[in-house]
């Protein structure tokens, strides 16, 4: 007798009740999953193909109907004389136009004629490429505390440079560029600032005389730069800035300020929220954050993030400046008024232990680097000098520090931190949220183009910020002239 397996179910009654016998179990066909999936995919693709063809046909029919129904463009409705001369001859064009709703990124070019040229060629105001800058700022003029007025630190040189800047602007009427004079910028200007803002009478006199001074020289405005403002002068300085902004607006002139990169110094000298309420642009002096004659470790002037050893001695990176600014204010629009700064002049150090193979950022230094190249200044080197040295001297090595996002060149006991095209592109994330970038010491660039196109660094900054500007595609119809 065959051995049959029977399935059982436990009920409420005693005993097991058979569910079914093997001979009575209905057959169960097992479908082929591969065949089912293939048929399902094929059906899905067929449906998508039919829908795509139908949509394309509908779009073609709609476009054709719209073309026949649409009236003639206003550009085509010319005079009868034009139609008689060139009947039915027109062209449809499409071009990019800067969006009027979005505020464009700005490039501030700071021109310091007191520095030597960074290349073998003498640098002059006429060398400046107007197309790469949105604003030209002349560095720097001083304050006359006795007269409560603006004074020239080097009258012959400054007057000639300001005259050329005004002439440069007039020669390019199609280029919308603003020309400023930077008032201050040195540690020795602090006593003059304190005297000028000390009373209401001196403040008003400085504002009125400053407006006349700007207008006489054909400039657009001034940039106030007090490097180390004090807490005792904060109220008077804030009053000066607010009153000057109102007066300059009435006279159709412009003004802005350069504030310290150090958060403590900035809060001691300014009511930061009031600055952003009154001004359209606020510039931060992040281009000179260390002095190689006293800073004990190697670093760059404008790192994205300061290394621990550099941060321990007081330096902060660009990201820290932005973070402290956003933490101090609750309005997101404030950050878009901020303009950070970089310098095209590198900072040089002399290493304490040159025999160490690791010449990274943060190693000990005993002082500024020795003078070399065309700049020939202690603790400073131009971009031109560093590139030329790397090409002709194989003992020099260059590398990009990933954490700080700045470029380093070194040889034996000499160490230089500088900006090049790679390091500027590495600062792209921080520039996405700000209004633009202030480029100081532009004479340190390769403005003559000995190693490629002229103004490589300034051109890189221009291209970098232009990539963030919003453009709209505009279409138009123009008549073709005979």
UniProtKB/TrEMBL annotation:
UniProt keyword terms in alphabetical order: Membrane, Transmembrane, Transmembrane helix
A GO CC annotation given for this chain: extracellular region
SMART domains tied to this protein: Glyco_18
Gene Ontology molecular function, alphabetical: chitin binding; chitinase activity
Protein name: GH18 domain-containing protein
UniProt cross-references to Pfam families, sorted A to Z: Glyco_hydro_18 (PF00704)
GO biological process, one term: carbohydrate metabolic process
Record-annotated GH18 domain positions: 105-468
Transmembrane segments: 40-65
Keyword Plastid listed: no
PROSITE patterns in alphabetical order: GH18_2
Record's keyword annotation contains Transmembrane: yes
């Amino acid at each position: 007798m065959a051995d049959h397996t029977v399935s059982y179910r436990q009920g409420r009654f005693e005993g097991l009740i058979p569910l079914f016998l093997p001979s009575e179990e209905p057959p169960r066909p097992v479908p082929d999953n591969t065949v089912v999936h293939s048929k399902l995919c094929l059906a899905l693709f067929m449906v998508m193909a039919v829908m795509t063809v139908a949509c394309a046909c509908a779009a073609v029919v709609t476009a054709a109907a719209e073309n026949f129904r649409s009236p003639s463009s206003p550009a085509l409705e010319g005079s009868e004389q034009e139609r008689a001369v060139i009947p039915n001859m027109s062209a449809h064009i499409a071009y990019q136009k800067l969006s009027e709703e979005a505020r464009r990124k700005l490039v501030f070019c700071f021109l310091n004629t007191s520095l030597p040229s960074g290349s073998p060629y003498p640098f002059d105001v006429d060398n400046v490429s107007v197309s790469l800058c949105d604003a030209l700022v002349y560095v720097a003029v001083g304050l006359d505390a006795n007269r409560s007025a603006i004074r020239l630190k080097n009258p012959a040189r400054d007057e000639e440079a300001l005259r050329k800047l005004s002439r440069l602007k007039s020669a390019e009427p199609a280029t919308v560029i603003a020309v400023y004079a930077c008032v201050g910028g040195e540690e020795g200007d602090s006593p003059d600032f304190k005297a000028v803002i000390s009373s209401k009478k001196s403040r008003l006199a400085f504002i009125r005389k400053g407006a006349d001074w700007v207008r006489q020289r054909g400039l657009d405005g001034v940039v106030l730069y007090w490097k180390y403002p004090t807490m005792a002068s904060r109220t008077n300085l804030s009053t000066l800035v607010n009153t000057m902004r109102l007066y300059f607006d009435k006279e159709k002139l412009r003004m802005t300020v350069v504030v310290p990169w150090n958060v403590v110094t900035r809060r001691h000298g300014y009511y930061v929220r009031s600055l952003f309420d009154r001004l359209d642009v606020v510039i931060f002096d992040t281009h000179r954050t260390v002095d190689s004659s006293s800073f004990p470790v190697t670093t760059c002037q404008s790192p994205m993030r300061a290394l621990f050893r550099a941060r321990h001695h007081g330096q902060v990176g660009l990201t820290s400046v932005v973070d402290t600014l956003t933490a101090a204010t609750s309005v997101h629009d404030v950050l878009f008024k901020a303009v950070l700064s970089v310098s095209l002049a590198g900072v040089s150090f002399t290493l304490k232990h040159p025999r160490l193979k690791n010449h990274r950022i943060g190693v000990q230094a005993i002082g500024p680097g020795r003078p070399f190249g065309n700049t020939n200044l202690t603790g400073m080197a131009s971009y031109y000098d560093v590139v030329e040295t790397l090409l002709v001297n194989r003992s020099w090595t260059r590398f990009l520090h990933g954490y700080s996002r700045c470029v380093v060149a070194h040889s034996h006991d000499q160490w230089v931190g500088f900006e090049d095209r790679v390091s500027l592109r590495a600062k792209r994330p921080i520039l996405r949220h700000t209004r633009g970038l202030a480029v100081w010491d532009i004479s340190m660039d390769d403005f003559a183009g000995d190693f490629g196109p002229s103004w490589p660094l300034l051109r890189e900054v221009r291209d970098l910020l232009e990539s963030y500007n919003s453009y709209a595609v505009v279409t138009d119809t123009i008549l073709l002239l005979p």
